[in-house]
Amino acid sequence: MISFLYNRQPLSFNNRTKHQMDKYYEDIVKAFKHYYPDPIRQYGDLYGVVYYFHRKPTGLDADNLSKPVWDALTRQLFDDDRSVKIRYAGTFMLESRGLGGLLDLSSFPPNRLEEFFGMIDNEEHTVYVECGRINYEMYKFGCEAGRDL
To answer: Under DSSP, is residue 47 helix (H, G, I), strand (E, B) or coil?
Structure first.
């Protein structure tokens, strides 16, 4: 599994110019290479996570959050973003509620946790990216656990 952080407001897949998207891709690759200067290319079926933590409303929806990240990492982390079979994406506004017990961080990569807390405490924008080999138990149904559907 790879994971990395960066502190830039994401660009929506739908709301950008080519110049903006090229610069954004550059920033993602730069952040990735900061953590993985000589990355080992991932093959096979993968999962991907992109979570965006922010302090002010941005209007960015989770729908368009992850596609630019996986596009940028094509030929850096994997050959084709079609390898990412499961994608999780989410936005989380920090000012209104903080993290206090709302998120389960028990599986957060320990080598990134201190930096993550430092970023969400001190930056306007924090993006967490994770990618790894798929486990088919990741396909979930009835995610609203304990509720009648």
So the answer is: strand
Q: 27-53: b or e for each residue (b if 16 or more CB lie within 10 Å)?
A: bbeebbeebeeeeeebeeebbbbbbbb
C-beta separation of 102 from 90 below 8 A:
no
Helix ranges (DSSP H) in 36-129? 67-73, 94-97, 110-122
- For residue 104, give the amino acid letter: D
> 18: number of CA atoms within 13 Å, CB side?
0
CA nearest neighbour of 25 among 43, 39, 42, 11 = 11
Tokens standing for 59?
A: 């209007």
Each residue of 2-53: pLDDT tens digit?
A: 999 999 999 876 767 889 899 999 999 999 999 999 999 999 999 999 999 9
Strand, coil or helix: 25: helix
Copy the structure tokens of residue 81. 């973003």
Q: What is the pTM of this model?
A: 0.91
